[in-house]
Amino acid sequence: MLKLRGIEKSFPGVRALNAVDFDLRAGEVHALVGENGAGKSTLMKIIGGAYRLDAGTLEFDGKPIRWSGPAEAQRAGIHVIYQEFVLFPNLSVTENITKGHEKRRFGLIDHAANQRVAQAVIDRLGVKIDVRETVANLSVADQQMVEIAKALVHDVRLLILDEPTAVLSEAEVEVLFRVVRDLRASGVGIIYISHRLDEIFTLCDRVTVLKDGQNVATHAVADTDHEGLVRLMVGRDLASYFPAKSASVPDAVPALEFRGMIVPGRVQNVSLAVQPGEILGLAGLIGAGRTELALAGFGMLRRSAGEVFVAGRRIAAGNPAAMIRAGVGFVTEDRKGQGLFMNLDVARNVTGATISAFAQGGLLSGRAETNAAQAEIDRFGIACRGPFGAVDTLSGGNQQKIIFARWTRACHTALILDEPTRGVDVGAKAEIYRIMRDLANQGIGILMISSELQEIVGMADRVAVMRAGQLSGVLQANEITEENIMRLAAHSERLVS
What we know:
The protein has a 6-stranded mixed beta sheet, sandwiched between helices. It has a 6-stranded mixed beta sheet with strand order 18-21-22-15-23-24, sandwiched between helices. Helix 13 crosses helix 14 and helix 14 (396-410) packs parallel to helix 15. It has 17 helices and 24 strands. By secondary structure, the chain is an alpha/beta fold. The termini are far apart.
């Protein structure tokens, strides 16, 4: 269906793609993987007509093509669903699906006919969405289905999905996978871009690895494994991903302790403690109450009962400022929505939690703030244009390191990390894991919430598992396996040592 040979693309000062080859067959799911900056997005935009190639050839249906723009590619049946959706939030599902191709009667938009078209596409996807509903009122998963419906209404032949599961629950992921498999069975070719390697092995037929704008390899998924893919992407083995764990969990006053925490309908009488220098993993299925427990403990979600202690001192309920003063930081799972000041520079993002330290006589010392930010840039190896660089242009891994830099400047007792590597590539994950272990080795207690079992097993010194709002067990040492975590999460049979 699609053949690219010798693709070249450069931007000022950057060679994004260098002699890249890629092809896609009808009725297959072809994964495209690599670290941030590997060239995946650039290649995707060339295929979809958003960028023009500098050199090389692109063939679609055996014919050489140079798209004049995305509209021409769409007319040929190529549709791209970006990680950031392209929807009109204040319009209805029907209006989004049929926008630009509305059916008309007597020169006027035929709303009933358009609703029938939209409903037929939604029915084909097998999801329950009211086509009269305003898109802004839909869940993220349903908005993604509307994006796919937009492609189907135009007779899609080639679909590109960019990180499609980044913000979906497990149940929503299963719905997406079913839709992708149905499309594959109908002959649609699908390019699937994801940092989640488990998804590649579950869903895809072939996988192509890009690194630094060049082809590394293309393999049938059945002929490779997680370790092989990681080695191709980052040039090192999977075993080097995870730093050595603590030799033992110290018996000391906990850095952070929750006692009898209750959040009505979410958390039921949960108690746990994080020791200084320990990484305590908090695992469980979606809806188990992990994030709600952390938010309630930090004071961002109302709790009906329970106490929180930091280094043995009780902290008043519902008071994040008191938690910060006591030395506790919170790295949210919503990096862009809640974690970063997207309209401010790197320096202000790094110093945001300690801004008063740079004030003299009611005025900020710009030089002191810049010097502090530069020190953190050097410490965490943040790839940016210096303290005055914009954060919204950085990769997910570098944005995440900025948040770590902010909280470790402000907090020296404990850190709560909610999905600390969500949406970052495998190389950046390894760097973040190293940062986490370095912080633990300095005596900071870390509560790490993660949905990636491999991450929990590789990083946690102990693992607390939640199910239906309750603590179902705590695993230590050799008990920490993916199988045992799932048994506790699903309330299954005995553990295996």
